[in-house]
Amino acid sequence: MMPEKYSKIPLEFRVWDKFNNRYYYWDNLSDHKIPSNYTSCCDLEQFTGLYDKNAKKIYAGDIVKMYGVLEAIGGEFLGYDENGDVWMKDYIQDWVGVVVWQKYGARYMILFEDKEQTTDFSGGTSNIEVIGNLHENSGLLPNERIA
Q1: Which of 92, 114, 122, 126 could form a cystine bridge with 142, CB 3.0-4.6 A?
Q2: 11-45 pLDDT per residue, tens
Q3: What is the chain's Cα-based Rg?
Q4: What is the pTM of this model?
């Protein structure tokens, strides 16, 4: 038996209907019939079990903004610290990416394709905001290749 301190992620889904261009929200897949060729008619996106800084549910396929990302900009050398580590000029930026399932790591990630980087949710979600999703707001992404 699992200790109480570990909570189960609710199996909640949203389904993008490709024919009617709208979402349906399901909290129980067994109540719905999904055709075997569902990829031709719909996209199934699972709730990650996480909430953004505004307590909004985060689903796979969501476009999120991560606020206050510290980015070291290569090439602008500032010097060395007392331990001999290199100091580079840093910038605080807001990054936009899409929530994806990483099957090899068995976890949800945020893909920042324009930065060619990913991050997981290990730092929490207090600086993450859902700003849209791939189907209705793909124009929010800095690089259309993600969509």
Answers
A1: 114
A2: 788 989 888 999 988 876 666 666 666 667 888 89
A3: 19
A4: 0.75
